[in-house]
Structure formats: C-alpha cells, structure tokens
Design brief:
Radius of gyration: 22 Å
Number of helices: 7
Organism: Nitrosotalea sinensis
Low-confidence stretches: 1-22, 66-71
Number of strands: 14
Protein name: DUF4352 domain-containing protein
Oligomer: single chain
Distance between the termini: 59 Å
Shape: elongated
Structural class: alpha+beta
Largest sheet: 5 strands, antiparallel
Mean pLDDT: 79
Strand order of the largest sheet: 3-4-5-12-10
Length: 267
Amino acid sequence: MASFSSVVCVLCVVVFSAVFMPINAESQIPNWVKTNAKLWNQGQISDDEFIKGLQFLIENKILIIPLGSVISHDNKIPSWIKNNAGLWANDVISNDEFVSGIQYLLSSGIITISQDNVVTNCSQLATAADKETCYEQLAYDTKIKNSIQAATPYVIGPVTFYYVNSESQDADDGKTILTIHFVVKNNSDHQVTMTCQNRDSCSYVLSDGQHDISYSTNTLIYGSMTLVPNDTKFLDWTFYDVIDPSKNYSFVIKEQWGTGSIPVKFS
C-alpha cells in the first residue's frame, strides 16, 4: 500500500502540472543532493541548507525553471515535503514525485524564485524548443505582472479579479460590443473552478440592476476553468446587447465559492 506522502505527492503532480519544471534527461542528480535531502528529512540540516541543493540543480540546469533560481523561503515548509525528501533519498519515490513537492513550494509562495538573468537562462537551454517555451513563458509572466500592476483588484471569495480594462464599440444594429479584460488569481490552498456551461447556465452576467445580459463569448474552455492554488490567468468576457453607458453596470459573479459584483468602466 502506498504511503500517505507518496499519495499526496502524486496528487501534486496533477494539481501543479502547470508549473514548468522538468528534470533534464541528459543530466544526473548528484548523490550529495540526495544525501542533503535525507539529512534534511532527519532534521540534521536547516531548510536554507536544503534549498542550496535546489539552487544547484536549477543553476546547473538539472532542474529547469524558466524564471531563474530559488532565492528564499518565507513560510514553514509542510512536513509531508520533508517526508517525501526522505523517500526520494532512499529511492522509494521517483524524481518526478519529488519535484512535485518543489512545485508545491513554488506555487504556494513558500519559496520564491528570482527573475534575474532570466533571458540568459533561456538562451542557455539545450534545444530550440526549450528556448522557445522559456521565452514564451517569460513573455506571458511579464504580461500578467504588468496587467496586474495596472489593474483594480476585487476579491470574490478565494479569487482576486484584477480588472484590467474594458473596451466598448457600437455596432450597426444599435447594440454595443463590450469586452472586459481580467486577470484572475486563486489565493486559496485548494482548486477553484470557474463555471459557465452556456448562456442559460452561467455564473457570470452583466447587469444594470434591473436585467441581466448573458455573455456573447468568453475565454473559459469547455464551460469551465480550474485554477490551482496561486494560479493566475487571463480572462476575457464579451457582451453584445443594447447597453446604455449612462447606466451603472456591474459584472456579477455567482459561484458556489463566492458571489459579488464588479463595477464596469466604459472606455
């Protein structure tokens, strides 16, 4: 029967797969890193000393993270990750299962990574495909960061909706095309699913307080979008209807995990 730590770790592989963190197949993890993991599991070395081993793996491109290298940790590292370190050191669990625990530390913000020398790190990756993926991830992360800095945040349950901007355009038939741009972030320690199955069954509407307007298009895939802990994504909603900009409209959220409204700003 698999240990609790192994089960948790396997779950992390699924939940945090969005973090780009592969093991370089052409590299080998030095024995001293596994020894450090074992000593850390036994409480014989500090968290900082263990993190130095992670730094080595990243800086030597054994563990590939496009965003740079581990620099610090701010919160208590969960005990199950220490348990996994011991299992990994004794070859009970695989490299990928161990890495999933590190993914958790990054996703939850317990350890942080520096964006210094990111471009240099991308250029030093072995294959053109890896370089392209690295640069694309960097561009996406930069766009997310810049959008959040320019946005107005609204906290709805476990999710922060960063209202970036909106665009409106009058159509020839007297209706208005209104598109609202958000960045959404899951601030909780569990998965959150945003749902909108169709126009008649959607947790999101545009409302003037008297009647609701269903969406025309949105960026939810297959009627839903799941955010893992600390996950951040772009989200656009477009509405096509008779919209009077002199009225006060709100983007209304009615999810099981939270309800609220966000005032709409017309461009």
